[in-house]
Design brief:
The chain has 9 helices and no strands. The protein is an all-alpha fold. The protein is globular. The two termini are about 15 Å apart.
Length: about 240
């Protein structure tokens, strides 16, 4: 994958990997007590600090204004004090600086579902660990953001495996609505860019990512889709600035 991601037309769908099938190794998990309702800045299993951080990343990448992020946090009842950035800082952040890619796959901190470090594990977990780290590294994600995406993928996977087909359909609609609210008329274009990055990573790493996103439900998560778009956008900005 190069430092640029070209958007191709994506259907009006709420999934990052529509139509994929099969399972990724180590993708299954036992039920957990994570059944909170989805919401971009209103819960979804994330702490107030995590929700604020996700929105702040989007502000720094230029995908929403500070006022819009503050309004979402206010609606969720979250108060966060943020230091003001200088004009120079904001310009550099807009070009993706301050979001340097992880230098090594081991910099990503994975949730227990995928993590094979420092504990006795089965072969499936060891393989899942390598796969997930490989996907995040191939996407050239910063360590902190890649780790947050892995956490969200594990949370969604635990939640969706307890869902009926009807529940899963409702979840997809809810997550799509979150992105449509966030992106407005740019929804289709931004979704297409996120999908294109996902396809490139899947191809570069030998496959498995698209099927994992589909079967686990992680490909429906508004948080994951939004962060993949932000990364694709950063890669394009870096390429143009080079």
């Amino acid at each position: 994958m190069t430092d640029t991601v070209s958007a191709t037309p994506g259907g009006d769908v709420g999934q990052i990997a529509p139509g994929a099938a099969g399972t990724a190794s180590g993708a299954s998990a036992s039920p957990a007590d994570d059944a909170s309702s989805p919401g971009f800045a209103g819960g979804g299993g994330f702490s107030p600090e995590q929700q604020a951080q996700m929105l702040q990343w989007m502000v720094e990448a230029g995908s929403m204004t500070q006022a819009e992020a503050d309004a979402m946090l206010k609606d969720a009842g979250i108060e966060v004090q943020k230091p003001e950035a200088s004009a120079v800082d904001e310009h550099l952040q807009g070009l993706g600086y301050g979001f340097e890619p992880a230098e090594d796959p081991m910099q990503f901190k994975l949730p227990e579902m995928f993590d094979a470090t420092d504990r006795a594990t089965t072969g499936d977990i060891v393989e899942a660990d390598a796969q997930v780290r490989g996907w995040l590294f191939a996407a050239r994600l910063p360590a902190q953001i890649g780790s947050a995406i892995a956490d969200e993928a594990a949370r969604v996977s635990r939640r969706t495996e307890r869902m009926t087909p009807a529940d899963r359909a409702v979840y997809q609609v809810e997550q799509k609505a979150q992105l449509q609210k966030l992106w407005g008329v740019e929804y289709k274009d931004k979704l297409a860019l996120a999908q294109q990055l996902t396809r490139e990573v899947d191809k570069k790493t030998g496959g498995g990512l698209l099927s994992f996103l589909e079967t686990s439900g992680a490909g429906d998560s508004a948080l994951i889709i939004a962060q993949l778009y932000e990364q694709a956008h950063r890669l394009n900005l870096r390429h143009k600035a080079a």
